[in-house]
Amino acid sequence: xxxxxxxxxxxxxxxxxxxxxxxxxxxxxxxxxxxxxxxxxxxxxxxxxxxxxxxxxxxxxxxxxxxxxxxxxxxxxxxxxxxxxxxxxxxxxxxxxxxxxxxxxxxxxxxxxxxxxxxxxxxxxxxxxxxxxxxxxxxxxxxxxxxxxxxxxxxxxxxxxxxxxxxx
Length: 168
Prior knowledge:
Layout: E1 2-6, H1 10-38, H2 52-79, E2 81-87, E3 92-98, E4 103-109, E5 113-119, E6 122-124, E7 130-132, E8 135-140, E9 147-150, H3 158-165
Antiparallel strand pairs: 1-2, 2-3, 3-4, 5-8, 6-7, 8-9
Helix pairs in contact: 1-2
């Protein structure tokens, strides 16, 4: 097996945000439960317990936002490439992606790579915070969503990686 690509320290950042999203989902579910039981009792809310449907709407809304964030980060981790290895004998690519608590490896023929698209990932806003996070979408036959290859990662075989990203 030949190591073609590694996301490097970016993996730790993605894993941190994934775990943060899980903690946020737990906190949002607790806050949603609390709202469904007590919304309206605070003096700022009127001091009278709100009707059941209003309390449930607030509770489910808050819990749903936390669960949606965790689900989105789980999906992002499943698409985010941690490493790519190439098996010269079997002509297979072994792509390792992130899970909430572990990694997942998917193997497929190198010929299944359909195309890749580069996205600059630059965001400038008036508040002075800017983002520069370029990436590639790696489209593979038989998959609904493309893999996400962080362009800030490192490659020990840049020629092989370039051939992979410029295939077809």
